[in-house]
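Notes to self, ComF family protein:
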Amino acid sequence: MAITRHIFRAALNWALPERCPCCGTITPAGGPFCADCWQQLQFLAPPWCHGCAMPFEYDRGAQSYCAACLAKPPKHDGIRAAVKYDDLSAKVALRLKYSGKIGLARVIAQQLVRHLPEQRDNIIITPVPLHWTRMWSRSFNQSALIGRALSAQSGIAFVPDILVRHKRTPSMRGLNAKGRRKAVGQAFSVHPKWQSRLKGSHIILIDDVLTTGATSDGCISVLKRSGASWIQLFCWARALRGESAGQN
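result:
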């Protein structure tokens, strides 16, 4: 039933005029966003922290770190988000995740390509996984759709099954950072067929949005324990420090 619904929604999306994912306005050919929403989206770019890519107000020089990363170095090797997480960018993520607007995965990937490293040898792309019950009800993993689209646009290998989510976590709306970390504790593992193949690997981990980082930290921890030497997190939108919201 879920797969049939997914196919129907995809056909309907193809047949109807393209609409802005933020406001629903019919958009002119050549762009997924209307001009007003495009101008309101807050795209992220340097200067930023070398550790977590939190934007700086001014250029502090190459490989400068924010106070938070100096105090507690992150588990990852960088975060790359297309835009700031706010009400507008959240609409895009929600319409991909819950309204079946799967074409938005390609749109998001187009905004992430510019953040890819110049040296792409031996990099693999993998998504934050869904629990099988959510996959069954939704029929797709939005992070996997983004990852597959980014792979198609960049030529970087996409491997969808490195991580397994074997614990269905509750909705994390309203939970603070500590509550979210507890909710995702022991939720992820590396698939047995990959456990001996990740030593020294370089991984781009894909998620739709980043808020507290509890979900991505859980994934990164198990990847590092399995031998991955370099992991960057790529996402559509991220909450800036002091502005956490949403579910991840």
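- Residues 213 and 245 are 11 Å apart (CA to CA).
- The longest helix spans residues 2-15.
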